Amino acid sequence: MRAWYEAPMGGCTNCSGKTGCNDRKHGMLGQVQQWLERLYPSRSWGALDDEVAMVSGVSSQDLAALAEELSTELKAAAIVRPGADEDLCDFIYLLCQGREPCALQMRYGDVPMPEELSESDVLSEFYLRIALSSVAPLAVVQQVAVQLSCVEGAWILREETAAGVYDAPLLRRFQRLVAILPAYGLTHVDMGEISQAPEGFSHGDYEEFYGRAPHTVNYLFFRSPSTMSVTSTLFNSP
Q1: Alpha-carbon distance 23 to 94, whole Å?
Q2: What is the mean pLDDT of each run of 10 residues along the chain (238 residues)?
Q3: Run of H or E including 174
């Protein structure tokens, strides 16, 4: 079955700025490797050095301040959400296509469902989702498509997370977002560069849950695979 939203595949093989980009990526990947070594001295999934992790990640104060600045500078609603208990990050969702009150605000109970929203309506929205590591000064950005619709009397929210940022309407905000991160001491990490298992690391029991070895992103940000499709029921129509 074809997904309701499919992110285009991207690449940089023919990009005219490839040389400068490669230099930047070399420094970025060096930082990623350093943090992997510091946080996982035994090179094993799940064996996090808590003492290092507790003092190295993005603070709640910086999370709130960054969300406020991004909302102002990018002229987009910013929705801050904590990661799940097993995650090593918190999230900022920036509403790039859609209008408030948005589907995610309804999902998390920030606002009630608008009275004018009828069962025939379908809300389709696009976000930039920033994952901010709670164990290292790193950030990764993905585009997220959200659809809210009524199916047999129940309001269903579908969330599709892409492997990176591809759509033109989001790219300008994405570039400005990345330019703001260094002011908070944060390094932006390209998702494509951390979507594979780190060499020389053992994957513990991760494969039992997800059927593959953990990728670098799972050691530094969130436990689940980087591209996820989530469907949830928000509430039933009266």
Answers
A1: 29
A2: 43 43 75 96 95 95 97 96 95 94 86 81 94 98 95 90 92 96 96 95 90 95 91 71
A3: helix 168-180
Q: Tell me, what's the pLDDT at 89?
A: 97
Domain definitions of the chain by residue range: 18-236
- Residue 16, both tokens: 């005219």
**Model pTM above 0.70:** yes
Burial environment of residue 223 by CB neighbours within 10 A (0 to 12, 13 to 18, 19 or more): buried
CA 78 to each of CA 89, 91, 102, 143, 231: distance values in angstroms, whole numbers, following the listed order: 16, 10, 11, 14, 22
Give the single-character DSSP code of 196: S
What is residue 119's three-state secondary structure? coil
Measured distance CA(123)–CA(125) in Å, rounded: 6
